[in-house]
Amino acid sequence: FESDCEHSFFCVCFFPDFIKSLDLSFNRLTGTLPVHPFPSSIQKLILERNELEGTIPSHFATLGNLTVLN
């Protein structure tokens, strides 16, 4: 089940502790990164090719498993 959840929107919403990799690149996202925390299990967060702005929220410092932020 865990491997089926890796890039699934359903898993982000309903099973956030299963998320290891989330690729939101090329989605025309705008604004700032959310202030609410990402799941602590996240290892890869890909946000490239969007229109995000502002600073990286401080909760990113608590994501001990995060190895890729792009």
What does this structure look like?
With 70 residues, this protein is mainly beta. It contains one helix and five strands. It is globular.
Summarize the structure.
The protein has 70 residues and is mainly β.
Choose one word for the global shape.
globular
Low-confidence stretches: none
Major sheet: size, sense and barrel closure?
3 strands, parallel
Structural class: mainly beta
Can you count the beta strands? Answer: 5
The averaged pLDDT comes out at 80
Q: Which percent band covers the strand fraction?
A: 15-25%
CA radius of gyration is 12 Å
Could you give the order of the helices and strands? HEEEEE
The termini sit apart by 26 Å
The helix content is under 10%
Number of helices: 1
**Lateral strand order in the biggest sheet:** 1-3-5
Quickly list its features.
single chain; 70 residues; mainly beta; three-stranded parallel beta sheet; two-stranded parallel sheet; 17% strand
Strand and helix map with partners:
Elements: H1 9-14, E1 21-23, E2 30-31, E3 44-46, E4 51-52, E5 68-69
Parallel strand pairs: 1-3, 2-4, 3-5
